[in-house]
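Quiz preparation item.
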């Protein structure tokens, strides 16, 4: 081979390199580094979208459902807590109502206070004699007679329609003797007694002078004259639930 032949081979090699493309070509598109980078990016986005649609979205939906369930359960818990507070409040109000009922019932008489009423009234009358002088008028209880043997239910509206069929009363005819001041104090103290009492048909008249024989050496009385005071004492007592039910059934219109 001559030198010229070698030179021709170098020329042919240059022609071969010129005919070979610098980047891969597919469908007429040369895959340059830029194109390849774009394709890789697109493929990456597509993969990320696939993962998001097939993995992340179901997980997110499940998370949202669980979050809604947690919120619902928390709401139920809060409602139960509120109900518990309401129950406690109702129990407290019920206890207060019972206590108030006991206090109100304490204002009324009962069988025990009715049995001791004569002693209580006599004690009130005698208490007016503490400051009475020897020759002064001494207060005394002249009469204490129950008008009815058994308490009678109040159904006549005399104390208001609201208490009809809920209370009963026992009436007593009483009479006392004393000065005006003593009588006034006795009546006032009767009204202050713990059981609820009503004083009706109050009448006072001047007491007759006591007759004295010539040989009577009793000192002459001094001070205000004595008066006789008669009245009706009504003792109020609550009816039992059974009595209230019986009265209501009796008063109900027959079908």
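Solution:
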């Amino acid at each position: 081979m001559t030198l010229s032949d070698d030179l021709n081979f170098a020329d042919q090699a240059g022609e071969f390199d010129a005919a070979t493309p610098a980047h891969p070509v597919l469908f007429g598109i040369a895959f340059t580094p830029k194109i390849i980078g774009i394709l890789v990016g697109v493929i990456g986005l597509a993969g990320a979208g696939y993962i998001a649609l097939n993995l992340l979205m179901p997980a997110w939906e499940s998370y949202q459902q669980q979050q809604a369930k947690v919120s619902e359960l928390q709401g139920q818990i809060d409602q139960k807590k509120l109900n518990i507070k309401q129950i406690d409040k109702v129990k407290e109000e019920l206890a207060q109502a019972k206590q108030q009922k006991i206090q109100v019932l304490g204002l009324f008489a009962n069988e025990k206070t009715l049995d001791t009423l004569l002693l209580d009234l006599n004690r009130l009358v005698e208490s007016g004699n503490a400051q009475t002088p020897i020759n002064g008028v001494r207060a005394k209880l002249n009469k204490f007679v129950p008008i009815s043997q058994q308490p009678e239910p109040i159904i006549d509206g005399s104390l208001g329609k609201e208490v009809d069929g809920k209370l009963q009363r026992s009436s007593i005819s009483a009479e006392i003797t004393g000065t005006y001041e003593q009588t006034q104090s006795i009546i006032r103290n009767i009204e202050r007694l713990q059981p609820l009492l009503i004083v009706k048909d109050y009448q006072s008249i001047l007491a007759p002078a006591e007759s004295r024989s010539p040989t009577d050496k009793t000192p002459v009385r001094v001070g205000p004259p004595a008066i006789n005071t008669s009245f009706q004492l009504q003792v109020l007592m609550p009816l039992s639930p059974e009595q209230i039910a019986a009265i209501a059934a009796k008063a109900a219109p027959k079908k």
